[in-house]
Amino acid sequence: MEESVESIAVLDHDEDDPSSTILDLTSYQLHDLDSVELPPTLTELDLTANRLSTLDPRIANLSHLKKLSLRQNLVTDATVLPLSSWNALASLDELVLRDNQLRNIPDVSIFQKLLVFDVSFNQISSLHGCAKVSDTLKELYVSKNEVAKIEEIDHFHQLQILELGSNKLRVMENLQSLANLQELWLGRNRIKVVNLCGLNCIKKISLQSNRLTSMTGFEGCIALEELYLSHNGIAKMEGLSTLVNLRILDVSSNKLTSVDDIVNLTQLEDLWLNDNQIASLEGVTEAVCSREKLTTIYLENNPCAKSPNYTAFLREIFPNIQQIDSHVFS
């Protein structure tokens, strides 16, 4: 026998703010909210992993609501249509529509203070509609869709995280106005050439599983701390000498035969080189100048990983190493 919604719904009160309430209805497989009370003082409503295909009109009256999650439901474009006229929700700062059945970016122009907007794992073919999203936005997630072009994002001057992984992008473009961007996630697309459009404050970039054959294009990203370029067609390590703040470099599963251009990377902690054609173990250790900093190195499935005393040699060269391939040392 199923428990009633009333007995399992979680209604939390923020001790610092007696009027603040959070209603978490995650994974109750609800088809509607008819049997659920929606207190007018709600600030967060989490409806993740249910079976909702319509929006309860009572949500429109939750004037204190800051966060609304409809992740993993049966939400369509028609389902979210009422949102555009729900004026009482104008102060919403986080809207999650991830993992649904959307085909378009919904009209969320009513939310003039929006900070987080997530429409990943849908069937969205275009970023048309982003132009109406508030310029207050700090995090935009549109991964695992069918988007073919980066557009309508030039007004996001406060944006810090842009996630467009697993789409159909071929060109990096229209990024130049994102002056505050900290993280750019473009893995699993069809990009052939790096073009960061002058961004220089960015700290994390992922271009894993694209069609890159060159590493050039990152030279101006002097603040960069994490760079992920695995599963491409890169044959040479280059364009890295200016990235003096880099802590994590992943160039696994490429076509590398040697390790180059990392002599200036004195902060390097993680180096992923596995599944390449690197022959010289000595060449690897000579290239890394951050010997005291390095804690993780992956070299498996390279010719050099078959060297005698491979693990012992690396542990001697890198005194603070904690992991070699899948082997973790205590």
From TrEMBL:
Database matches in PROSITE patterns = LRR
Report the InterPro entries cross-referenced here. Leu-rich_rpt, Leu-rich_rpt_4, Leu-rich_rpt_typical-subtyp, LRR_dom_sf
Transport: is it a keyword of this entry? no
Entry keyword annotation includes Transit peptide: no
Q: Name one Pfam family in it.
A: LRR_4
Q: Tell me which domain of life the UniProt entry assigns to the organism this sequence originates from.
A: Eukaryota
For this record, the Gene Ontology CC terms, alphabetical, are: cytoplasm
Q: Which UniProt keywords apply?
A: Leucine-rich repeat, Repeat
Q: Which SMART domains match?
A: LRR_BAC, LRR_SD22, LRR_TYP
Question: What protein name applies here?
Answer: Protein phosphatase 1 regulatory subunit pprA
Q: Provide the species name.
A: Phaseolus vulgaris
Native organism taxonomy: Eukaryota, Viridiplantae, Streptophyta, Embryophyta, Tracheophyta
